[in-house]
Structures are given as C-alpha cells and as structure tokens.
Design a protein that fits this description.
Elements: H1 2-14, E1 18-19, E2 22-26, E3 32-36, E4 45-50, H2 62-67, H3 73-83, H4 88-92, H5 99-105, H6 112-116, H7 120-143, H8 149-162, E5 164-165, E6 180-181, E7 190-191, E8 198-201, E9 205-209, E10 219-222, H9 229-236, E11 249-251, H10 253-256, H11 262-270, E12 278-280, H12 286-296, H13 299-307, H14 316-342, H15 349-374
Parallel strand pairs: 7-10
Antiparallel strand pairs: 1-4, 2-3, 3-10, 4-9, 5-6, 8-9, 11-12
Helix pairs in contact: 3-7, 3-8, 7-9, 12-14, 14-15
Protein name: SET domain-containing protein
GO molecular function: protein-lysine N-methyltransferase activity
Organism: Trichoderma cornu-damae
C-alpha cells in the first residue's frame, strides 16, 4: 500500500496538487488517513487541488454523459469509474477501499439478516439509499446492459462516500445533490466532528486549511457534515462513540407513531409534526413532545399549547411519563436486538461488531434520557 500511496502522490503532483506538511498513511483498522509530517500551525494551507484535477461532470467522457443524459451526477460519475479507460484512474484506484472493505462496512451490502437488525433510523436511511441506487442502476443498465450490477454498486458507493460538494458552470443550476466532485488525495481525509480542517473551493482550486495546531504524526481530519451515527453508518460505513459525536440521535418513530390514531396522525400532519421524533444526548426534540402531548391531552388543550395560550409546562409530568414508557420499550428492543445479533452468524464478525456498537450507542442515549426523567 505504501507504494500505491507514493504512486498516487507522484501522479497528483504532476497534475498540480500541492501537499504541505501532510502525508497519507495506512491506519490500523481504518484504511488510509492523512497525518501531519511536521508541526502544523492553525490557519495553514495543507492541501490544494486544482480544479483541473477534479473528476466532475464537466470532464466525464462525453459519450458516457450523453448516454446517461438526464441522469444524476452521482449516476454518471459512478458509471464513468466503471467505463472510462483513462490510465490515470489506474494510479488512483489502488488507494480506494477494497470491495471487501466496502461490503463489510456499508449496510447496503450486508446480508438481509443483519440489515433487518439495523436500528430504526438507520433502517429508514438505508431504504432511501437502496431506492436511490435501484433507480440509478436501472438507468445505467438500460444504457450499458453489459455492465455488471456488482461492479456498478462498488463504483456507486465510491462516489457516495468520497465526493466533495462542488459546483461549476456545468452544475451550479442542478439540484444540490448533484454538486459532486471526486478529488485525489483529499478523498483520503477521515471524518471528525470537531477539530477538523476546513475545505473551500473557487474557480481555481480546492483548498484545505487547518483550524488548530497539529503535532507530527497526528491525524488530520475534515468534517463530512453534522451527521448522527445512523447517517455515518449507512452513508460512510462507520460510527463514532456517542461521547465523541455531538450530533448523534436515535429515532423514536416506531415507539410513538403506532400509538396515535388515524385522526391524531392527520392532525399532526396538518401542522407539520408527523414523524421524525428524535432523541439526542440532551433531550427529546420538540416534535416528540408535541406528539406525546397529543397522546396525553384532550385535543382542545393540545391545540392551546400549540397556539401558545396554554403553558406546556403544565403538562410536563404527563409528557415525561409517556416518554419514559417509550424509552422503556426502546431499551427492551435494544436488548432483544443485541441478543439476536450475538447469536447470529450472518456476515463477518467485524460487521456484526459494528452493528452491535451502533445499538450500544443508542442505549447510551436512551439510558441517559431515562436517568434525566428519573431525577
């Protein structure tokens, strides 16, 4: 792998990529990351990637873009990774995660048994991701029937996990989700929710700048976004400890929605408060309290709270009692899921461990919320 990294850097340098005080390195259990090679100060530019080195819709082979006219940028970039014979890609591919690594880390590749054991939030995100992939694959398969689905899925996931937000004249009028670009070296940065480097682009280049000092050998991170662990797991194939990820949250929908009648659902939908009931490290969200209050109060009093003519604190004991029951049911399901997981032989041990970690992170949120209600 060291030889592949040096080949990548040599090729990237020939295209004008400037590396300053950092170097890609194989990190145990985490693929490749970027580490400081010397002391770095805050506000120091550590990487510049010229626009000409980016892989975007603009420099996708025209015959591929034409064959997939009207498809998403994600669809087209993934197809080009499969179909473009450009020899430069052969200098880049060796540092991509392997198919095995992708298959073991990303739920879309997991056995059905493990996918069924995903937490509610992750399961919902995976369903949306699978629908998106199926649509993209149908488009590509119609244009290129010789292409194998597994090959396209691998490339599709590479694009999904390694692209950066970027716009140019070809894409600035497209939907936000089409503002995508692949870039060498920069795609090796790992994610951290805090203490990360900033990334910015203009017409000439993508520039990465430190926000704090780094010591030699210290890993240098960027932030993929303010993502909860369900999102990180489904989209990128990893999670962070709840104590490290300030945006982690757990979905309460399966424990609240079935308790509401059709009329209550209609009323919540009418005022924009149906579903997306989330619990984070501090509290259950306001949407959750609105829904639980619907279960606890007569409709008139519930509406008065929503209209601001009744103090919501008057009903806090009732709402907290309802939330306590929700959390108790969630905790029981966590126990059941962990037991099923421990008795399963589906997938690889590493994959089962990743899923177990996610359930334990959710238990951390549920337990903390339960303790707050008891105090």
């Amino acid at each position: 792998m060291e030889a592949a990294i040096e080949q990548l850097l040599e090729w990237a340098s020939s295209m004008g990529v400037e590396v300053n005080g950092i170097h890609p390195k194989v990190l145990h259990g985490r693929g490749i990351g970027i580490v400081a090679t010397r002391h770095l100060e805050a506000d120091q530019v550590i990487l510049q990637v010229p626009t000409s080195a980016l892989r975007t819709l603009s420099n996708t082979p025209k015959h591929i873009a034409k064959a997939l006219s009207g498809a998403t940028v994600h669809t087209i970039l993934a197809a080009s990774l499969c179909l473009d014979p450009n020899p430069d890609l052969d200098k880049w591919r060796p540092v991509f995660p392997s198919r095995r690594d992708m298959a073991s880390s990303l739920p879309i590749c997991w056995p059905a048994k493990l996918r069924s054991l995903l937490p509610p939030g992750a399961k919902s995100l995976l369903a949306a991701q699978q629908e998106k992939f199926n649509k993209d694959w149908a488009t590509v398969a119609a244009a290129y029937p010789q292409l194998q689905k597994d090959d396209y899925l691998y490339s599709w996931l590479l694009v999904n996990t390694r692209t950066f937000y970027h716009t140019n004249r070809s894409t600035d009028k497209l939907p936000k989700e089409d503002h995508m670009a692949l870039q060498p070296v920069a795609d090796l940065f790992n994610h951290a929710p805090e203490g990360y480097c900033t990334a910015a682009f203009d017409d000439k280049s993508f520039t990465f700048t430190t926000t704090r000092p780094h010591q030699p050998g210290e890993e240098v991170f960027i932030r993929y976004g303010p993502h909860a662990n369900d999102m990180l797991l489904v989209e990128y194939g990893f999670t962070l400890p709840s104590s490290v990820n300030p945006w982690d949250e757990a979905c309460l929908d399966p424990y609240i929605c079935p308790c509401l009648t059709a009329a209550q659902k209609d009323r919540l939908q009418a005022v924009g408060f149906w579903e997306k009931y989330m619990l984070d490290s501090h509290t259950a969200c306001y949407r959750t309290h609105v829904a639980l209050r619907m279960l606890c109060l007569p409709l008139g009093q519930w509406q008065d709270v929503l209209d601001g003519v009744r103090d919501e604190d008057e009903d806090s004991d009732l709402v907290n009692a309802a939330l306590f029951k929700v959390l108790a049911r969630y905790d029981a399901d966590i126990t059941t899921s962990l037991e099923q997981l421990s008795g399963s032989c589906a997938g690889e041990e590493e994959t089962r461990g990743s899923l177990a970690d996610r359930w334990l992170q959710i238990r951390h949120l549920v337990t903390a919320a339960t303790l707050r209600l008891q105090n």
